[in-house]
Amino acid sequence: MRGELLMQPLRIAVLGMVDGNGHPYSWSAMFNNYDKAAMADCPYPAIPVYLAKEPNEKLQIPGASVTHIWTDDPKDAEHVAKASLIPHVVSRPEDVIGHVDAVMITTDKGYEHVERCRPFVEVGIPIFVDKPLVDNESDLRQFQRWVRDGARIMSSSCMRYCKEFMPYRTSIHSLGELRYTSITTCKSWERYGIHALESIYPILGPGFLSAQNVGTKERNIVLFKHRTHGDVAVIAIDDLYGSHGLLQLCGTSASATVSSQDTFYSFKTQLEAFIEYLHTDERPFPFSETEELMRMVIAGIRSREEGGSIVPLEEIAAD
């Protein structure tokens, strides 16, 4: 069966599009290639810029194509389909059932994801969910139950695959013992905090103990304690566009400062990991990591709403 899957291109549906998120354009182009004239009218100008930098022979992910699209506003679907060469536009998300091998939920509002995923969980279609998977405890419990019952659900930030951070995922031995780590992102904690969190998680590993958000809704300064690696500051500020993805690792022997640069690489590698998961049924990382990351997102929200209280992660959504 696995050999058959590897020989047959997988059919993927892209579902959903919300304000501030152009993933249906870029992700679909990474599978299908794209129409340069139509993509020039993409409402997210950074997307055609970084797509154009890639050699045509390195643009596409082999083994799958985006065959169907649905967006919340039907006009968006028509334009994405034209720009990213998607043959079928459907009028309801459920219309793709029976015609695709997997779906990608390309929206980043965590509180919507349970209901966006439910029809496909119920019929056993594998799902990739854009970050963050959730932003509240009840929805995290639902995803925990679904995965425990065998649902094939994967969610991640592309920053997990940031190539500039990869050397520190391999080893931080030269830095000595870490005492302080910081990472930045623009936009909101609810939608973009996970970009910062998942940047550092593969470096520091599991073991986050507590969160304290001493900032505001527009200026989140979230202080975490890690069991092994000391203090961690995760910053999400609305207009911090010039400093998104700035990582600092401070150890007893040395320090390192590095920033993310190659958005295309991060997205493409993330999507390749999902396709590999579909082919092999082997997760690229345990779902327990996603669970801990979601606890961190939720704890940051709770602490802010409680005026900067310290929130133990063990209190969050133990199912």
Automatic annotation (TrEMBL):
<dbReference type="InterPro" id="IPR000683">
    <property type="entry name" value="Gfo/Idh/MocA-like_OxRdtase_N"/>
</dbReference>
<dbReference type="GO" id="GO:0000166">
    <property type="term" value="F:nucleotide binding"/>
</dbReference>
<dbReference type="InterPro" id="IPR036291">
    <property type="entry name" value="NAD(P)-bd_dom_sf"/>
</dbReference>
<dbReference type="Pfam" id="PF01408">
    <property type="entry name" value="GFO_IDH_MocA"/>
</dbReference>
<protein>
    <submittedName>
        <fullName>Oxidoreductase</fullName>
    </submittedName>
</protein>
<feature type="domain" description="Gfo/Idh/MocA-like oxidoreductase N-terminal">
    <location>
        <begin position="62"/>
        <end position="147"/>
    </location>
</feature>
